Amino acid sequence: MSLNLHAAVRNVIQAVNPDVSGWWYRSAGAVLNTDGRQVPAYQTPLSVMLQVQPPSARDLRFIEYLQMQGVIRTVYMFSNPQGIVRVNQTGNDLLLFPQWAGSPNDTWLVERPDESYNVDANGWTKLYVTLQTDRAYSVMDGSGRLVLDADGRIVRSSG
Question: Each residue of 112-152: pLDDT tens digit?
């Protein structure tokens, strides 16, 4: 039996940096748009609690090695979100959570799961996510979720 150190320090982490509620959009592969282009599709979103932190110095060195750019956060969550899984023909999952406390939800792309611990038995995964520009041109519902059409495509605003 392995020791779950995260469970041992969970209360201390919460006292310093409380979890943020968000939405997890699992990739469902791609569908054809009306103009014939492939666009990502997503499953119905799940409500999740996220531990959002800035990248550590070690993380920043690794992120630089991966040539990731933009606004990046390290996220810990009790589940198993995915980046690109070519064998399953699925793209990156999305997370929705505010960039700053009190601000509206932003869309974050799961670039790369970095670590996982016992995800099949309520374990956690460490992720690197990058901020997307979707808030400016995506339709959101009253609870701050992206609106999906019947095929799982993100509904875009007309303006």
Answer: 777 767 666 667 888 889 988 876 677 888 777 888 888 78
Give the model confidence (pLDDT) of 8-58 as tens digits. Answer: 777 788 788 888 999 999 888 888 888 888 888 888 899 999 999 888 888
What is the token pair recorded at 103? Answer: 């601000």
Residue 107: other Cβ atoms inside 10 A: 21
**Which residues are 124's β-sheet partners?**
117
> All domains of the chain, ordered by start, with CATH?
5-136 (2.40.10.270)
Q: How far is CA 38 from CA 32, 97, 111, 146, in A?
A: 5, 26, 20, 19
Task: Give Cα separations from 65 to 26, 27, 52, 69, 103 (angstroms).
Answer: 26, 26, 22, 11, 31
CA distance 104 to 30: 27
- Check if the beta carbon of residue 27 is closer than 8 Å to that of residue 45: no
Q: How far apart are the first and last CA of the chain?
A: 55
